[in-house]
């Protein structure tokens, strides 16, 4: 089950992820079951966070987050290995394609009991 709730709270989340331009920072391991993940965009560009399983299936995703915003992503995760990533693709002022995933906006996430 996936629930997306937009918010602007400032409380630090134990299971939070910070999206910065070219980087995702957050835990490597979270507990199995229900989790509320606070996702913050501290970069200067829009970002999103996707959670995919080892087969590439999207388990959960946020909306596009403008710079300086955050959201809470409530997820139910079974034990296993997942990937968190930003999959936005944009274009700079010179027409160059900028793929956030190719810039390093991904990390492995282990879910354990």
Task: Describe this protein with a few key phrases.
5-stranded mixed β-sheet, 12 strands, globular, 113 residues
Helix content: under 10%
Q: How does the overall form come out from the CA principal axes? A: globular
- Strand coverage percent: over 45%
Say how many strands there are: 12
Order of helices and strands: EEEEEEEEEEEE
Query: Biggest sheet: strands side by side, in what order?
Result: 1-8-5-2-3
Contiguous low-pLDDT stretches (5 residues minimum) are 1-13
For the sheet with most strands, the description reads: 5 strands, mixed
Query: Which structural class fits the helix and strand makeup?
Result: mainly beta
Q: Report the C-alpha radius of gyration, rounded.
A: 14 Å
pLDDT average, as an integer?
88
Total of DSSP H or I helical runs spanning 4+ residues: 0
Distance between the ends: 18 Å
């Amino acid at each position: 089950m996936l629930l997306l709730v937009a918010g602007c709270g400032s409380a630090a989340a134990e299971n939070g992820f910070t999206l910065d331009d070219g980087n995702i920072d957050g835990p490597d391991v979270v507990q199995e079951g229900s989790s509320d993940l606070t996702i913050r965009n501290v970069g200067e560009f829009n970002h999103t966070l996707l959670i995919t399983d080892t087969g590439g299936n999207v388990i959960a995703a946020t909306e596009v987050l403008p710079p300086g915003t955050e959201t809470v992503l409530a997820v139910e995760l079974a034990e296993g290995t997942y990937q968190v990533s930003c999959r936005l693709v944009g274009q700079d002022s010179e027409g160059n394609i900028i793929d956030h995933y190719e810039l390093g906006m991904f990390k492995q996430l282990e879910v354990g009991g």
